[in-house]
Amino acid sequence: MPTRRFADGEVVMGRWPGSVLYYEVQVASYDDVSHLYTVKYKDGTELALKESDIRLPSSFKHRKSQSSSSSPSRRSTSRSRSRSPGRPAKGRRRSSSQSREHRDDKKKTIQETNLALLVLVVFKPDENNTRRYNGEPDSTERNDTSCIALEQKLKSDLEIERVLEQYGLRPRKEEKKKEEIYSEKKIFETIKTIEKTPSKTKELEFGGRIGSFVLIFFLPATVFYLLLMCKQDDPSLLNFPPPLPALESLWEATVFGVFLLWFVLQALFYLLPIGKVVEGLPLSDGRRLHYRINGFYAFILTAAVIGTLLYFKFELHYLYDHFMQFAVSAAVFSMGLSIYLYIRSLKAPEEELAPSGNSGYFVYDFFTGHELNPRIGSFDLKYFCELRPGLIGWVVINLAMLLAEMKIHNQSMPSLSMILVNCFQLLYVVDALWNEEAILTTMDITHDGFGFMLAFGDLVWVPFVYSLQAFYLVGHPIAISWPVAAAITILNCIGYYIFRSANSQKNNFRRNPGDPKLAYLKFIPTATGKGLLVTGWWGFVRHPNYLGDIIMALAWSLPCGFNHVLPYFYVIYFICLLVHREARDEHHCKQKYGLAWERYCQHVPYRIFPYIY
């Protein structure tokens, strides 16, 4: 076995990966299996280095110290030796040859150092990394490709410089300038060009092209199946397939017109000059898009409109009577919107394409979204659809189901189960709209393009699947006692507390890690300059916000009783969705944080469910 050379706590010089530069580091530990040293830089960054990348500080002392230690007699002999008048040319030739070699070495050192510095500046993680949002990892794939392209370009330029130098084809004045620095302007122009060049999506998700093609048809079929089952007297899973309605009954022009009116109304509320305007995270070209935060105001205005309609005796349970037609209208609209988004993305600049939807495969890019932030002027289509029509529509649908239950069953008051479902889900929507700014750091906004997946999810899946419990209770009323209602309420409050406090803890730490109120939190520093929390909620499990989500989803389904599995579809779906997201986060975080993520996983072994998963 190889012996260990450097001890723990020893101060040495460590080479930064991908460069020729060495920095002062302290040895933290040594792995006998991988034979790697864990070293800590002065800024807190911890990396694993091979022994060949570590040197003693004494090896970096200037050679001048060696010449100064030579014997005095030798120095005096050298000084006393005079040049013979008979050989001045030889002495000059030797002097010019030595100076030329010295100049060549100096130039080579400057050029290689500038190259290393360039790679370090471009690819060394920075505190202001643009992908530092809620759990969103970086993609190292693009960095590797850009680094190789940059090195090849600069090295080819260096070869040209050396040929010109060898044959004396450069003017002396230009040569003098080249000795000082290797074209700083050209370097940063190269950086700019490379950063604007998008990389192709290589890691395909959702089963790749075949999986994406299947999901385009499977998702709408799932929504229609769930709604048809809820309409049955016995919505058992054994009663498959449910009786299919006539095709002509699924479409009604009036219903489609109402849906369009709803979409336009929310668009008008979005365009109102109320609410603050904030900047999003930096894009690949350095730009920051502006977003108006007025989702909560739009919700208040929508409530006023709905209240006005009810005051003038508008029958809101019209939504329940034509629920399937509304779902079909929303699906048709989302498909048309997706086609428009893909066609316009073909003309979008390269730097505006989504990193996750630039595979070059039509079906996959259509499904995941080819363009990152499609806009019509200042109207951001993806940001608008993320919270407005679907999420606010979810609350309106729940209210319509409550009124339909009262009318169908001749009740003066809605059932306790229906009240709980409406209140729990109303709290969830209001929380999302109140904290609207937080969505700007999610993967939906910063990473995923706007295609069929998000269009269908925002406009169809959210309003028509998330309201499944309320729709179920209209045809299958469940009576629960007050003690049971109180227990379910406590469960929902626990889930909401975990969800909100975990997100707030993370957001506050990211915004101001030095806040004295957060002094009790411990974290692991990473090479990106961001810390990984190992105490608080994020030291309990790796994704406590997902845990809170699942607990709330269970509380939403419990008022529906246990006669059928159908109301619990949302819980099953939500668990599968979050497990998929968690696996995706794990993969990207491992790429982004490297050794620091492995240490974090050792501190926090459970992902979502403590002591289980």
How is this structure best described in words?
With 613 residues, this protein is α+β, with helices and mostly antiparallel strands. It folds into three domains: 10-57, Roll (SH3 type barrels); 205-478, no CATH class; 480-612, no CATH class. Helix content is 56%, strand content 7%. It has helices at 64-68, 72-80, 88-123, 140-166, 172-180, 184-196, 208-230, 253-271, 295-311, 318-321, 323-345, 362-368, 381-408, 416-434, 443-446, 452-465, 468-475, 482-511, 544-557, 569-593, 595-603; strands at residues 11-15, 22-31, 36-41, 46-49, 54-55, 276-279, 290-293, 375-376, 379-380, 523-525, 531-533. The strands form four sheets. The chain has a five-stranded antiparallel β-sheet, with no helix packed on it. Helix 4 runs antiparallel to helix 6, helix 7 packs across helix 12 (362-368) and helix 9 runs parallel beside helix 13. The longest helix is centred in the N-terminal third of the chain and has 36 residues, at 88-123. The protein is globular, with a radius of gyration of 32 Å. The two termini are 37 Å apart. Mean pLDDT is 78; it is low at 62-96, 108-151 and 173-197.
Gist of the model:
56% of the residues lie in helices and 7% in strands.
Q: Main traits of this protein?
A:
613 residues; two-stranded antiparallel ribbon; alpha+beta; SH3 type barrels; single chain; 3 domains; five-stranded antiparallel beta sheet
Strand and helix map with partners:
Blueprint: E1 11-15, E2 22-31, E3 36-41, E4 46-49, E5 54-55, H1 64-68, H2 72-80, H3 88-123, H4 140-166, H5 172-180, H6 184-196, H7 208-230, H8 253-271, E6 276-279, E7 290-293, H9 295-311, H10 318-321, H11 323-345, H12 362-368, E8 375-376, E9 379-380, H13 381-408, H14 416-434, H15 443-446, H16 452-465, H17 468-475, H18 482-511, E10 523-525, E11 531-533, H19 544-557, H20 569-593, H21 595-603
Antiparallel strand pairs: 1-2, 1-5, 2-3, 3-4, 6-7, 8-9, 10-11
